[in-house]
Amino acid sequence: xxxxxxxxxxxxxxxxxxxxxxxxxxxxxxxxxxxxxxxxxxxxxxxxxxxxxxxxxxxxxxxxxxxxxxxxxxxxxxxxxxxxxxxxxxxxxxxxxxxxxxxxxxxxxxxxxxxxxxxxxxxxxxxxxxxxxxxxxxxxxxxxxxxxxxxxxxxxxxxxxxxxxxxxxxxxxxxxxxxxxxxxxxxxxxxxxxxxxxxxxxxxxxxxxxxxxxxxxxxxxxxxxxxxxxxxxxxxxxxxxxxxxxxxxxxxxxxxxxxxxxxxxxxxxxxxxxxxxxxxxxxxxxxxxxxxxxxxxxxxxxxxxxxxxxxxxxxxxxxxxxxxxxxxxxxxxxxxxxxxxxxxxxxxxxxxxxxxxxxxxxxxxxxxxxxxxxxxxxxxxxxxxxxxxxxxxxxxxxxx
Length: 400
Prior knowledge:
CATH class of the largest domain: Alpha Beta
Number of strands: 28
Strand content: 25-35%
Number of helices: 6
Largest sheet: 6 strands, mixed
Mean pLDDT: 95
CATH topology of the largest domain: Molybdenum Cofactor Biosythetic Enzyme, Chain A
Radius of gyration: 32 Å
Low-confidence stretches: none
CATH architecture of the largest domain: 3-Layer(aba) Sandwich
Number of domains: 4
Strand order of the largest sheet: 7-4-6-5-9-8
């Protein structure tokens, strides 16, 4: 039996072995939430002209001291640039319009009074030259770097892409994932239950966790506890998919065929068995063409803990997707553990009167008992060394 790896060593080995999934070009409307893989430069100056910032009138204040201006034209947003030929006149303007030639100041409509063909400035209003004019190039200059690789594309970034004519954008590729549930005892969610069967839930739970993190290309598969069937199914999926996530069949039982099938198919074992509870039997490896294989234990709590602690962070890091960092919480009550193992304990998190994050441990009876998990927000990681972790201990919290 191989020696158990520490959680820290397992995490490092996975990080070092993870491949880069490359990039792809997608339409701008499909880019939200993706990670940029190109430099984006300014298409032209922004704004591309001196831009009017308020509805009102545009005047040549540097050439006239008048407070009463005859209306000589109209400049709407989207119109070609008009010209103020007489500095003693004004041009009506709207927000977003080009500042007419010959004008240098905008007077808001609220500070004027219309008198026939004339505009009069309010008696107590003192304008300044250049007010309410957004100068050409004030935001950026042609060729300026606006976005860089590695940025996650949210609303502001998509606005920059659209504003600079980027209709297609290069982003980090999202790998294809197949989740394979193993076990003769599993029945589908819509199938009748026979004696000795349970409904499979791990595959749906893992798929939901992946999709919530931005991994949309997720498929489900199922295989019986049979070496030939397991090998054949994995061989086909290794040929067509980039990431395989197995649930069950990974321990050392007489019908746990997953490690043997993966060895037969040339998948290099990076790790097997970690000094942790739950999730000790976890297996991870890399296929002949760089395929990623996570083989998780079959008990539901074990599978979800290993997914949140290893699978999701590894995929997020490899694709550049933003991950919610773990945070410190304070245990409200003591937890019994095994000094030789890292313990992952489901908790409910709330904040006390001082704003400190407090975690109420809600450990399930076994790693197969998952009905209480919806009352938890995630789990804390309790390092080895103590048989009882006392209340008040600050622990690292990972969200489901």
